[in-house]
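README, section 4: Worked example with a bound small molecule

Sections 1 through 3 covered apo chains. Here we extend the same pipeline to holo records, where the ligand is supplied as SMILES alongside the sequence. The molecule in this example is magnesium ion. Nothing else about the input changes; the structure line simply encodes the ligand pose together with the chain.
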Amino acid sequence: MKIGIIGLPQSGKSAVFAAACGKTETPPTAMKLQRAVIKVPDERLSVLSDLADAQRIVYAEIELLDAGGLSGSGGGVDSKALAELKQMDALLLTVDSFTGAREADSDIQNAIDEMILNDLAQIDAQVPKLEKVVKMGGAANRAQELEVLKKCLAALEEERPLIELALSDAELKEIRGYTFLSIKPLLIVINIAEDKLGEAKAIEESFSGRVTPHRCEVAVICAKIEMELAEMEADERAEFLVDLGILNPAVDVVIQKAYTLLGLIPYFTVGEIEARAWTIRRGCVAQKAAGVIHTDIERGFIRAEVIAYDDYVTCKTHVEAKKQGKMRLEGKEYVVQDGDVINYRFNV
Ligand SMILES: Nc1nc2c(ncn2[C@@H]2O[C@H](COP(=O)(O)OP(=O)(O)O)[C@@H](O)[C@H]2O)c(=O)[nH]1
Ligand SMILES: [Mg+2]
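The generated complex, written as structure tokens:
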């Protein structure tokens, strides 16, 4: 799962990227594309790890790309960056709200408009071609594709991002071959000044109400402080967080929101060796979820022993959970829930 960071030059893209990777320095601007695999923070894993006395924790991961290239600045779009962005599963837009020199609302709107224009150019060229094909009856199975494209075109012409259409899975499948930008889930990261941290919550609320199409989220961060946090030792960081009056680094919240926005949830496996998060799509059933660990487990699936996270924490061990009737035996069609602790019975 890949997330691309976009935004105006100097809006804090590289700062957010660095903080998310636990790096301390922003790289020279000449280095345009940077990639990193980052861990999705989840406090539940350390709780589980402690309970089971596990040797290690394995977090869920997502891939982050500091891409630039699409900014809403109206300037030319870097074609290499754009090609990369089209491959992303979601976009993260950083907005400068720390210099006081910019209007966050219009920066957001401009970035969304730029995506819309880009998609429009792609669709505009495609619809007449496809209409011809369908009319000639050459490819009956593409009539549906044309339907969906027209629906998209209508939305774009009304200057609405495609994500707002909330297309069904079947519709999305029809246009899988296109790489639209405004269809990607969008996380807007408002980058505020250090002295505004106290207002972070209020700022977040004011933005969530205004600029949120379907599957769009807002997070507020001071990227500069986040980079400082990333630089610190654990003790020092804990102290600093207390001083700031917050529980977790804001960048953790950003990563968690991005993960959720992608429609992903984790389930856990817990043992002496490791406490581990496995990533599935929300709505995934037990047998398919098993395949994330190993295709053998999916193929040979018999039952899933499932303990809800809270029950596990209350009972503290698999054995005790079983004794108290908190371990459920679920079949292959069971819809796995966020935080389920699972042990598979399988046979290969
Ligand atoms: N004061 C302050 N400066 C920031 C913040 N975030 C980024 N900066 C600074 O703004 C400049 C541009 O940030 P950078 O991440 O390189 O922007 P990019 O061009 O979008 O990658 C750098 O000098 C950062 O140190 C912030 O939250 N507060
Ligand atoms: Mg940069």
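What to look for in the output: The radius of gyration is 23 Å. Residues 13-14, 29 surround magnesium ion (ligand 2) (CB under 6 Å).

Section 5 describes how to batch many such records.
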